[in-house]
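Appendix C. Worked example: PolC-type DNA polymerase III
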Amino acid sequence: MSLLSWLLPRKKPVLGLEQQQRLLQLPTASGLSDAPLRAQRWVVVDLETSGLHLNRDQVLSIGAVVIEDGAIDLSQAFERTLLRPNSPLNPSVLLHGLGPAAIAAGSEPVDALLDFMAFVGDSPLLAFHAPFDQHMLTRALKDSLDYRLQHTFMDVAALAPMLCPQVNQREAGLDQWINHFNLQVEDRHNASADALATAELALILFSRARVQGIDSPQALQQRLNQWQRRKQVHSF
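Step 2, the predicted output written as structure tokens:
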């Protein structure tokens, strides 16, 4: 991205009338609840992107499942590939099965992102390495819809070592935690399968949290914030 493109004002996306109406109807994000963990509806999301550059690469697909009433509700699932005809593909993208043909057959980003945010509703989101997914989703929504994402993200990759301190997995990826808990995951490395695996891991971690006396989303986030602050202090 050139310096000139940073200096020029961002061009707002042009939406059709129906798209504008759908955008206005999206619910406002709610804060984390102080009710029991099992009472919270969570949307577990995974994104596949054209690469790992936060400000240059694009969201190629979105997969999500819902945790509700303390279980994964398979009747609530989301999967969408976004049409990105001019997106340069990082070779690693092909490992996810998202070749040029799949991306060329995808949905228009505006409609796909409206569908996703309607699916999310006012629920908080869970993701593995959430800061990356949050940044990429925030940018995609701003670029395509001029929409400001305000939903809470909680990072399962941070919850795992916090709630399982006896496990030497502090820098572990999703595969390592799946293996640690002997989760039976039939497919991996596409957005929907990774979201489901993350949801299964999250349910185990919620159970660990309750055993440790943490039984609300609000309390879990507060504990996570404290744990991360201690980590930062000890790293100096």
